[in-house]
Amino acid sequence: MTIPEYQTLMLPLLELASDGEEHRVSEAVESLADRFQLTVEERETLLPSGHQTTIANRVGWTKTYLAKAGLLEAAKRGVFRISPRGHELLARHPDRIDKKMLEQFPEFQEFQLRASSEDRAQPTAAESNTSSATPEELMEEGYQRLTARLAEELLERLHAVSPARFETIVLDLLLAMGYGGSRPDAGRALGRSGDGGIDGLINEDPLGLDVVYLQAKRWEGVVGRPVVQGFVGSLEGNRARKGVLITTSTFSGEAVQYIGMIDKRVVLIDGRRLAQLMVDHGVGVTTGQTYAVKRLDLDYFDDESA
Known about the structure:
It is a single chain. By secondary structure, the chain is α/β, with parallel strands linked by helices. The chain is 47% helix and 12% strand. The protein contains 13 helices and eight strands. A five-stranded mixed sheet has the order 4-5-6-7-8, with helices on both faces. Strands 1-3-2 form a three-stranded antiparallel sheet. Strand 2 and strand 3 form a beta hairpin. Helix 2 crosses helix 4, helix 9 crosses helix 13 and helix 11 packs parallel to helix 12. The relative contact order is 0.09. About 6% of the residues have low confidence.
């Protein structure tokens, strides 16, 4: 069983409300999750933003669409119940309720028209009828695509910079991630001893209670186990316990497997992860446009708040 898309939830949610009782969205989420036999993992699956579970987001939009069509109505703050129109629709025993069916109601047509005029980036009517994504999911999917493209551009740029500049960029990233303390004391060069050597070390915390040994190289091909073993050997030679090996390319499966077999704590960062970390921590990138997604403040309309 996978997480049902919001149009699949429309009929079950209206049936849930058919008892005429008042229901909260949170209760509906649990009830529908039980009905579709979602696993714990599926119930806890988050949107890419990490702010809301996918099932809660989809149930929330299902409730919104049914309400815009006049099939559900607000009983009080955060609570909904079925409307007379909702009872009438269920009396027809529909096999499925989707956005195409909701378009028979003028209120829903008006809602769609307003949404279309306010956001020209929304899918067309044909796309909306078949889409399984909520507006938040569509927005976050677009964000993920833009971020992935930016990461690719960053990786291309990293391949073009000089070795010295590359090491500086790595240091800037680690500082942005909270390592190193102050900028002057952040990185210390240890000299070069070949591919198996250590490029430098950085404080793991601002107080310098522990250090992490670094090697950052712009390899062109796949980094195999011998390179990783050489780095681990250099850690042993320096009596170091922790290390980070960074490359603009990729690590072989044997190299990754080897790291899981040793006692030392070594983190491998390949090019894609490096670029993504730079995006996440604002290194080498700037903010082009910010969109604030606002939500209704129900407390503001509470009489007791006046």
